[in-house]
Design brief:
heterodimer, A: mainly alpha, two-stranded antiparallel ribbon, 12 helices, 2 strands, globular, B: alpha+beta
Chain lengths: 259, 200
């Protein structure tokens, strides 16, 4: 069912817009076009519009509802709970990356929060000074050698991605906690996943509202911001701490003065 | 007392003659961040009043002319002087509101300044971390000109303000046949109807 729907969405978007963007001929516009790494722009825009519609009709209203019926203390507890579960993913990927520090860090956090923080409802690990780092299978693939994966892709429901992170997302599905949740009965796994999406969306309400209101082209804004942010995460994972020239930030800001 | 005044005089003279350098850049940014966030946005004043105060600080601290020129890139050269002026006015007004809203969401976490690195000629990256879980990295790109510092970019968790605007606007302009007035109109419209996020 899920697959049929997905295929249908992709097929429709392709038909509607034609899958490939036309390359501009003007050399300067061509440069901008290439910097976006978005050869599938018409298709991506179609899926982006679909995601936005889904968000506007279902996800955002539910997130507002969740906010209305909970207090900040409850929401923090819920977020902590999911964050603590995600430490399992951090442990697995830290191990796969042979990164002792990250693995030990995530293990310590998971144990501390699970046992002393009421199954993760309280983030005692941060109070103990053990910092949190998010890890995922996309970062692992980067560490394993897939350093550059620029082509921009928008996935239905999952949003901005690229070829490496498509495999990363699939990898995350077969990593705990996701695989453990999937193994539960549907009556447990669906609400468990559902509440997680809603709590993540609730935390982003103001941020996304601000972006949406202030963008002349919301699609382009989300594209460049997600690309830049992901590049930073990958650079950090690769231990590229030499931020003097972060890859996406190598741009010239010299102009003739024009007072 | 005399000692103190000599000391003060010394500091004053040093400050005046100080060569442009990383320490000055950090001092400039930390003072500014404090003024914008602590003194203006974190207060309980009504938003319109906060915005007026913020506007003064923000527009004097950010090189909006420089940034405005950067964000429309190649279209700047093709535009007429009148188009450029109209765009800059609209961009300044709009960027001020948008950034007041962004800073306003900041919940008083501690900012730690971790160092400064030189960038291109006369420019510095001032590194800072906002206490959060996980901590957020903010880089302030500062440009020095004739002894005064101005911010030309703010990079939050790898996302550059200048680069993002540039990307967004070039995409908009491409769809509108490179018509800068269309972008100016769009920004004016957005600015007019801008609503500030409600505090949580």
């Amino acid at each position: 069912m899920k697959h049929t729907l997905l295929t249908l969405i992709i097929a429709t978007s392709c038909l509607l817009c034609g899958a490939c963007a036309t390359k501009p001929t003007d050399p300067e516009q061509l440069k901008a076009y290439e910097a976006n790494h978005d050869p599938l722009e018409p298709m991506n825009r179609g899926i982006f519009a679909f995601n936005n519609m889904f968000d506007a009709v279902i996800l955002e209203p539910v997130a507002y509802g969740y906010r209305a019926v909970t207090t900040q203390t409850i929401r923090t507890g819920v977020t902590n709970f999911y964050d603590n579960m995600s430490e399992m993913r951090n442990i697995v990927n830290g191990t796969l990356q042979a990164n002792g520090t990250k693995t030990a860090n995530a293990t310590k956090r998971f144990l501390a929060n699970t046992f002393w923080g009421f199954f993760g409802l309280m983030d005692v690990a941060s109070d103990m000074g053990i910092p949190k780092y998010d890890n995922d299978f996309g970062q692992t693939l980067a560490v394993w050698g897939w350093h550059t994966s620029d082509t921009y892709l928008v996935l239905p429901f999952f949003g901005p991605s690229n070829p490496r992170d498509v495999f990363g997302t699939m990898g995350n599905f077969i990593t705990p906690p996701s695989i453990l949740i999937t193994c539960l009965t549907p009556w447990t796994s669906y609400p468990l996943n559902g509440v997680n999406y809603v709590q993540m969306r609730e935390r982003a309400i103001e941020f996304l509202d601000n972006l949406h209101r202030s963008s002349a082209d919301y699609y382009a804004t989300i594209r460049t911001m997600s690309q830049q942010n992901r590049q930073k995460v990958i650079n950090d994972a690769l231990g590229n701490v030499d931020q003097e020239t972060p890859k996406q930030y190598e741009f010239d800001m010299e102009f003739d003065d024009f007072e | 007392m005399k000692k103190l005044s000599i000391l003060l005089l010394g500091i004053f003279m040093f400050a005046k003659t100080a060569v442009a350098g990383p320490d000055e850049a950090t001092a400039f940014v930390s003072k500014l961040a404090n003024e914008m966030i602590v003194d203006v946005l974190s207060t309980q004043k009504p938003m319109t009043e906060k915005l007026d105060l913020f506007r003064t600080k923000f527009q004097s601290a950010i090189d909006l002319k420089f940034v405005g020129q950067f964000v429309i890139g190649t279209y700047w050269r093709k535009a007429t002087q009148a188009e450029r002026d109209a765009f800059l006015t609209a961009f300044m007004d709009f960027a001020t509101k948008s950034w007041a809203d962004k800073f306003n969401l900041y919940n008083g976490q501690k900012i730690t300044f971790t160092g400064t690195r030189p960038a291109q000629k006369g420019q510095f990256y001032v590194d800072s971390t906002i206490e959060n879980n996980p901590p957020a990295e903010v880089i302030w790109r500062v440009r020095e000109k004739n002894g005064t510092y101005k911010i030309v970019d703010i990079v939050v968790e790898g996302v550059s303000m200048a680069l993002s605007y540039r990307n967004e606007y070039s995409s908009f302009l491409q769809k509108n046949n490179g018509n800068l007035s269309a972008l100016t109109k769009e920004l004016e419209q957005k600015s007019k109807t801008f609503q500030f996020s409600e505090q949580k």
